[in-house]
C-alpha cells in the first residue's frame, strides 16, 4: 500500500502541451507513471507525447478515467485549474505552480474543503511512490522502494532525505512535497496522518521550515495520538533573520514560536527524533529503525 498515488492511479497533466508540462510529463512517462492524457483548452482531440489531449478535465475524467491531476499552469490561471479539477471529480490534485496569488488560494481552499479531494501544493515538487508513480518534478532515480515516508516543505531537502535514507540501506514508501506557500492544500499533520495509517510505512521523516505553525501542530498531534511510528524531524532556516522571507513565501519568522529553534524544541518535547543538520537524517532513520 502507498499513499496518494500508486501504479493504479490514472494521471492527467493540466498544461500538458506547454514547455513545463511537456518536459515533466515526458519524465513521468519515462519513469513508468500511468499518464493517461493531458488538458490544454482548444487542443482537444490532438495527441501529445503519445497521449490524448482533452479540452477540459471533465472530458479527461469521462473519457480516460482520470483520478489524479498534476498542474503546470501559469500562476494567473492556476487557481481556476485546481478548482476545475476538483469540480470534475479528480481525487488527488498536485499543483506544482509557484507564485499563485494568496487571495486566489483563499478561494481555492474554501472550494477544496467543500469537495471530496486532496490538494497537494501549490509551489511543491509533487508526490512519488517509488517504482509505481512519479507525479511531480523530483529526480526519480534517487528514490527506491521501502518503508520510510517523507513529508517535506522543501523540494531539494525531499531529494536529499530520500538519497540519505536509500544510502543507509532503507527505502521510501511515498514522498510528499507539501509546498512552501502560506496557504497549501495539505498540511504537515494531514500528510503525517496518511503515513500513520499506511501499513507499509514504518518510519516518517518530517522536514519543515521556519514560519507558520504546521510542524508544531503536527508534533502535538503525533504526541496526542501516541507516537505510533518513529518520526525523524528537521527544520530548515536555523540562521534566518526575523521578519525576512527566506526561500518559500511561507518561510518567514513572525514571532518567537515559529523560529527553527522553537519548532525543534516543540518537536523534541513531543517525542520526535530531531536532527540539527539535514546531513544527519539518514543516520537517524537507521538508528530508530535499527
TrEMBL record:
This is Succinate--CoA ligase [ADP-forming] subunit alpha. Belongs to the succinate/malate CoA ligase alpha subunit family. GO terms for biological process: tricarboxylic acid cycle. Its EC number is 6.2.1.5. Succinyl-CoA synthetase functions in the citric acid cycle (TCA), coupling the hydrolysis of succinyl-CoA to the synthesis of either ATP or GTP and thus represents the only step of substrate-level phosphorylation in the TCA. The alpha subunit of the enzyme binds the substrates coenzyme A and phosphate, while succinate binding and nucleotide specificity is provided by the beta subunit. Residues 4-100 form the CoA-binding domain. SUPFAM superfamilies: NAD(P)-binding Rossmann-fold domains (SSF51735), Succinyl-CoA synthetase domains (SSF52210). Keywords: Ligase, Nucleotide-binding, Tricarboxylic acid cycle. The keyword Nucleotide-binding applies. Heterotetramer of two alpha and two beta subunits. Substrate binds at residue 159. It is an enzyme of class 6 (ligase). CoA binds at residues 17-20, 43, 96-98. InterPro entries: Cit_synth/succinyl-CoA_lig_AS, Citrt_syn/SCS-alpha_CS, CoA-bd, CoA_lig_alpha, NAD(P)-bd_dom_sf, SUCC_ACL_C, Succinyl-CoA_synth-like. The keyword 4Fe-4S does not apply. One of its GO terms (molecular function) is succinate-CoA ligase (GDP-forming) activity. It catalyses: GTP + succinate + CoA = succinyl-CoA + GDP + phosphate; succinate + ATP + CoA = succinyl-CoA + ADP + phosphate. Gene3D superfamilies: NAD(P)-binding Rossmann-like Domain, Succinyl-CoA synthetase domains. The active site is at 248 (tele-phosphohistidine intermediate). It comes from Profundicola chukchiensis. SMART domains: CoA_binding. GO terms for cellular component: succinate-CoA ligase complex (ADP-forming). Signal peptide: none annotated.
Amino acid at each position: 500500500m502507498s499513499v496518494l498515488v500508486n501504479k493504479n492511479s490514472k494521471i492527467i497533466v493540466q498544461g500538458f502541451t506547454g514547455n513545463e508540462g511537456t518536459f515533466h510529463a515526458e519524465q513521468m512517462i519515462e519513469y513508468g507513471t500511468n499518464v493517461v492524457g493531458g488538458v490544454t483548452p482548444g487542443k482537444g482531440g490532438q495527441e501529445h507525447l503519445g497521449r490524448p489531449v482533452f479540452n477540459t478535465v471533465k472530458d479527461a475524467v469521462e473519457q480516460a478515467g482520470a483520478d489524479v491531476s498534476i498542474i503546470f499552469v501559469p500562476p494567473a490561471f492556476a487557481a481556476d485549474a485546481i478548482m476545475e479539477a476538483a469540480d470534475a471529480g479528480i481525487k488527488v490534485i498536485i499543483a506544482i505552480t509557484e507564485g499563485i496569488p494568496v487571495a486566489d488560494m483563499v478561494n481555492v481552499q474554501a472550494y477544496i474543503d467543500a469537495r471530496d479531494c486532496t490538494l497537494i501544493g501549490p509551489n511543491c515538487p509533487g508526490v512519488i511512490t517509488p517504482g509505481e508513480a512519479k507525479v511531480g518534478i523530483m529526480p526519480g532515480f534517487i528514490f527506491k522502494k521501502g518503508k520510510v515516508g517523507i513529508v517535506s516543505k522543501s523540494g531539494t531537502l525531499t531529494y536529499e532525505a530520500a538519497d540519505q535514507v536509500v544510502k543507509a540501506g532503507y527505502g521510501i514508501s511515498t514522498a510528499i512535497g507539501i509546498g512552501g506557500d502560506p496557504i497549501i492544500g495539505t498540511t504537515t499533520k494531514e500528510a503525517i496522518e496518511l503515513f500513520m495509517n499506511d501499513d507499509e510505512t514504518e518510519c516518517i521523516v518530517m522536514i519543515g521550515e521556519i514560519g507558520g505553525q504546521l510542524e508544531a501542530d503536527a508534533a502535538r498531534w503525533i504526541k496526542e495520538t501516541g507516537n505510533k511510528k518513529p518520526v525523524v524531524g528537521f527544520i530548515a532556516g536555523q540562521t534566518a533573520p526575523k521578519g525576512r522571507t527566506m526561500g518559500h513565501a511561507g518561510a518567514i519568522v513572525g514571532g518567537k514560536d515559529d523560529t527553527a529553534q522553537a519548532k525543534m524544541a516543540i518537536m523534541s518535547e513531543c517525542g520526535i527524533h530531531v536532527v540539527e543538520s539535514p546531513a544527519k537524517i539518514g543516520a537517524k532513520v537507521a538508528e530508530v529503525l535499527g
